[in-house]
């Protein structure tokens, strides 16, 4: 495998979200739109590997999938993705969307196939996924607080 970070999106995602987490955890957290947008844009290649059914996914969904993936050791992504979808999005989607997502779950690559698409070895990918999940928590909390402080709510 090539050693270039340009070919390894998990490294970029991990680094960007660690930087965001450090920013939002600082005494005076001020996240620039550019920094936040850049970090979020790095997640796009991951969704491209997962297929069209996951273009709608959000940070909370990704964190839940990766947390579930850490617990299970098999090669399938369908079970953790399905459970995460059921927890995060299913209650907000109509029957047609739910069926489309269920169909999309059948087309998910295996863990091995996903790692090949991402040009990652399993051990390195695991490190970067854990780092992303851990860094996501303070970023999500910061965004929740930002929305609540502006009375925008977080239930939409």
From TrEMBL:
Domain of life: Eukaryota
Protein name as annotated: Glycolipid transfer protein domain-containing protein
Boundaries of every Glycolipid transfer protein domain copy: 31-66, 74-120
Species of provenance: Brassica napus
InterPro entries membership: GLTP_sf (IPR036497), Glycolipid_transfer_prot_dom (IPR014830)
Transmembrane segments: none
Matching Pfam families: GLTP (PF08718)
């Amino acid at each position: 495998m090539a050693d270039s970070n340009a070919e390894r999106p998990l490294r970029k995602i991990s680094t960007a979200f660690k930087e965001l987490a450090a920013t939002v955890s600082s005494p005076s957290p001020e996240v620039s739109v550019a920094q936040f947008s850049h970090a979020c844009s790095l997640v796009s290649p991951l969704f491209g590997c997962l297929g069209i059914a996951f273009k709608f996914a959000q940070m909370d969904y990704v964190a839940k999938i990766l947390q579930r993936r850490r617990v299970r050791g098999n090669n399938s992504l369908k079970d953790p993705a399905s459970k995460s979808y059921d927890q995060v999005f299913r209650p907000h989607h109509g029957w047609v969307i739910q069926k489309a997502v269920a169909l999309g779950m059948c087309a998910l690559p295996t863990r091995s196939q996903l790692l090949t698409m991402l040009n990652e070895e399993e051990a390195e990918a695991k490190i970067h996924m854990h780092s992303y999940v851990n860094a996501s928590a303070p970023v999500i909390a910061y965004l929740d607080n930002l929305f609540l402080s502006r009375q925008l709510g977080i239930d939409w």
